[in-house]
Amino acid sequence: MSLRDRLLPVADRIRSIAGPTKLSGNDGLDVRPNSLTITVRTWPGRLGDTTAGEYSDASTTLAPVPRIRSLTSREVAASGGLYEQGDLLVGPITPAYTNTDASTGGYSETDLAPVQSTDSIEVLYLITGPSAGDYRRIELRRGRAFRYELVLRKKQTTPMY
Known about the structure:
The protein is an alpha+beta fold. The chain has a single domain (about 5-155), classed as Bacteriophage SPP1 head-tail adaptor protein (Thrombin, subunit H). The protein has helices at about 5-15, 75-80, 110, and strands at about 35-40, 55-60, 70, 90-95, 95-100, 105, 120-130, 135-145, 145-155. The strands form 2 sheets. The chain has a 7-stranded antiparallel beta sheet. The chain has a two-stranded antiparallel sheet with strand order 5-6. The chain is globular.
């Protein structure tokens, strides 16, 4: 087990301090008002076709609650057109790890950016809190050893929660 592998659970526990509850179950600081749920929706027919029956959802709410903030004007300008004003940066999110007792934590790239392999699969990023709405993924940043970050953009028509 590498030093990075041993430090990922530590990073996860430290990040949990800011959330409503820490990974240890005790109260956290509760300074993260937004939360993110990633839902993979599978339709029985084509995407959005309700005549073929009901869809099924598989949802994951990220814990510990990651920081969610708007991208700065500087980040938008430096993106070369990839980002727009109003896009959100979600992270840091701890990469997947396995503890010495075989328990697991963190998230894999597939957890954060599920593959839409067919016309009947839809990936939804639902934020609740002050930045509430339905979002779509623009980018999964994976260039750092101890964290992932998601860049999300609000969908044009987003329901009110």
